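With this grant's support, we have paired protein sequences with backbone structure tokens. One protein thus recorded is set out beneath this paragraph:

_____
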Amino acid sequence: MIYLDHAATSYPKPGPVLDAVQRWFREVGVSEARGDSSRCRTAAQEVASTRQMLGDLVGLPGDRIAFCSGATEGLNLALRALLRPGDTVLTTAFEHSSVVRPLRVLERERSLRVHVLEPLPGGGLRLDDAATAMATARPRLFVFTHASNVTGTCNEAAALCGLARQYDCHTLLDASQTAGLVDLRVGADVVVGSGHKALHGPPGIGFVAVTGLELAPQKQGGTGSSRALEEHPRAWPQAFEAGTPNTPGIFGLGAALRWVREQEPARLLAHGLARVDELREGLRRKPGVRLLSPAAGPRVPILSFVHSGYDPAELGALFDSADIHVRTGFHCAPWLHAHLGTQKGGTVRLSPGPETTSEDVARVLAALP
């Protein structure tokens, strides 16, 4: 099978990731802070190591990293912790449903005012538009994605975070598509990411990284503390880690972070973009194809397109019959398709990974009419 859906989840997982998950199930089997046995200490060492490696990604100490089930949970928790009744929020049309849907709920529950920045015709955001919105709306929070999961466009995160600081506006960065590929040390107040995409970890694990802000707990439950407290701890990271942790997922993510470090994120990014450029060049020669991803500028390995003669779902079935796995539809990005003109059926999305070859690209292009 040719797998071109790394923007959804990476596959196959590196061997060390599978080994690390198996190690927890076969040799450890317990969580940190759930006792003082040697196995609990082994778990605690691996959890601490993984926290620190994530902290290195965002430029923070490891104790400013909280684990969660994924970016969806992390974004929900962060938005609820950051936003107060009557707040103004600035966001973008590129956002995933993990931002859009919580904002719409909180808009009703907390009487928020939500302002959405529209994309440029060629993709991306105009910094002047963001500056104007901040000057006029005076948002308390700017939440935005680092890269679009439909077009692959990377936003100028460092510049946008710097701009927000000028207007005393907090920033929440969704790094789901960039963690493992792009530098996350951009000055955001909160960074949320998933472990199963370009970080190549298992599903069911993600992180929330916080600078100096103190985010109030949004879930309450056990934390493994030896003290019998009836109130949930407010100290970070336990504040966001109620319940039994996904320790096998953390073991897998730790191994994935080491693997990504060995492979070098810049090299992984360059490999993926080279395959995207090959796909782009071949698709340009196909009659009826319209490309929906930027040809230049900062981007991640994602290429979307539509075909005048086929619905995206039809093309997905065609690729599947050729044993090629792609993604079709709306990609959980409800606001963007009105700008792309793809409201009816969405797009076909191709997102190569480390094992995608030029020969794979040739087979993909040959399968398309």
Notes: The chain has a mean pLDDT of 94. DSSP finds eleven helices and 13 strands in the chain. The radius of gyration is 21 Å. The chain has two domains: 2-11+264-367, 15-262.
